[in-house]
Amino acid sequence: MRLAQRITPACLFLALCFTTPLQAQLSRGEDPDTGLRHWQWQEAGIHFKLTQRLPDQTRAFFGARGFDREARERIALACVFQTEFRNTAGNDQPPVEYDLSEWRVHTDDGTQPLMVRETWKPIWQEHDDLPKAARIAFEWALLPTQQEYAADDYNWGMTAYGLAPGSEFDLEFSWQRGDQQYTRRIDAIECPPDIHPQPD
């Protein structure tokens, strides 16, 4: 599967790294096989990565778990990323904690929160015919809203940003280690486009 419809040699970027004065490292990359882009942040013993998920991938995933067409579309078109978070510090460091409800999405139209588990619950309450098993599968598929990570702990799941396919946004994200609070920002993240590439 290639995103050949929109990826050109001029916009290929692999392992482009930027180092801030705080010794944080942001890398932006692209999977050479799929064309899906990612944004990866490493700093102060954490590893945070966002990878695009095409809406078709999300449609297929939730379709296999009992979601009807309307419910699948609601998720697929909400700007979904596969998300990884790791505590890469040693045992001599306090655990890391985050709260996704505190993270913010910045666009030209303003600022909004992520669509976390608690955001989706009232939405699914309107779908009386959505099976309980499907609701449970959805909740487990999302990255937990709040999480604590001991040394070498990690987790992954989907995060949704509530924007149209192809939108661009800046993400303000935060985490805490002991008494130290970190707030950072990744600029120019791109929501996955709603395209339908065919296998090579």
Describe this structure in words.
The chain contains four helices and twelve strands. By secondary structure, it is α+β, with helices and mostly antiparallel strands. The chain is globular and about 50 Å long. It has one domain (9-190).
Uncertain residue ranges? 1-21
The percentage helix is 10-25%
Which descriptor suits the 3D outline?
globular
What is the H-and-E element order?
EEEEHHEEEEHHEEEE
Key traits:
200 residues; alpha+beta; 6-stranded antiparallel β-sheet; 4 helices; 38% strand; disordered N terminus
What's this entry about, in short?
The chain is of the alpha+beta class and 200 residues long. It is built from 4 helices and 12 strands; from the N terminus they run E-E-E-E-H-H-E-E-E-E-H-H-E-E-E-E. A hairpin with a 2-residue loop joins strand 7 (104-107) and strand 8.
Topology overview:
Blueprint: E1 16-19, E2 25-30, E3 37-43, E4 46-52, H1 55-63, H2 69-76, E5 80-87, E6 96-99, E7 104-107, E8 110-113, H3 117-125, H4 132-141, E9 146-149, E10 154-160, E11 168-177, E12 180-190
Antiparallel strand pairs: 1-2, 2-3, 3-4, 4-5, 5-10, 6-9, 6-11, 7-8, 7-11, 11-12
Helix pairs in contact: 1-2
